Amino acid sequence: DSVTVINAAFQGAPPLPIVAPTPIWEQTWAIDIAKQAMGALAVLMVLLIMVRPVVKAWTIKLEPQQTEAEAAAAAAGGVRGPDGVMVNEAMPDGSKPEEWGAPGKTDEEYDKMLAVLRKLVTEDPRLVAQVIRTWIAVDESSS
């Protein structure tokens, strides 16, 4: 057996070619995100174009038709109370709320308003009870 030694320089590896980076729209993760976004956009369009008008049509509440008595009360200055019943805005003594003035201005005005309220309580206690219930409900909802 014999060994021969040759003195030679090592050859380096050939240089790698420079590859341009892949554009973002050709990368797989970007394509997956774009597909998901297009699907979400399609669902949103279906909801806005088809489902929303149907839901709106279902939720429209029709106004109850006025009877002749309610129409006459409304023409005479009546208003619809919290329970839906037409209530004449004028008090039993014929005065209207805007004629009272602000409460507490003078003792005479306060006494006049107190007398009107006492008459109202004796003539229509149901209406007064409904007003007090409304006040309590507003107080409870605001706290």
Task: Please provide a written account of the structure.
With 143 residues, the protein is mainly alpha-helical. Helices cover 55% and strands 3% of the residues. The chain has five helices and two strands; from the N terminus they run ααββααα. A two-stranded antiparallel sheet has the order 1-2. Helix 4 (107-123) crosses helix 5. It is rod-shaped and about 135 Å long. The N and C termini lie far apart (106 Å). 0% of the residues are buried.
Layout of secondary structure:
Blueprint: H1 28-59, H2 68-75, E1 79-80, E2 86-87, H3 97-100, H4 107-123, H5 125-142
Antiparallel strand pairs: 1-2
What string gives the helices and strands in order? HHEEHHH
- Could you give the distance between the termini? 106 Å
Radius of gyration (CA) equals 42 Å
Question: Taking all residues together, what is the mean pLDDT?
Answer: 75
Total count of strands: 2
Query: What is the tally of helical segments?
Result: 5
The rough form would be described as: rod-shaped
Q: What is the strand arrangement across the widest sheet? A: 1-2
Share of helical residues? 55-70%
Low-pLDDT parts are none
β-sheet strand percentage: under 5%
Category from helices, strands and their pairing: mainly alpha
Biggest sheet layout: 2 strands, antiparallel
Question: In summary, what is this structure?
Answer:
The chain has helices at residues 28-59, 68-75, 97-100, 107-123, 125-142; strands spanning 79-80, 86-87. It is an all-alpha fold.
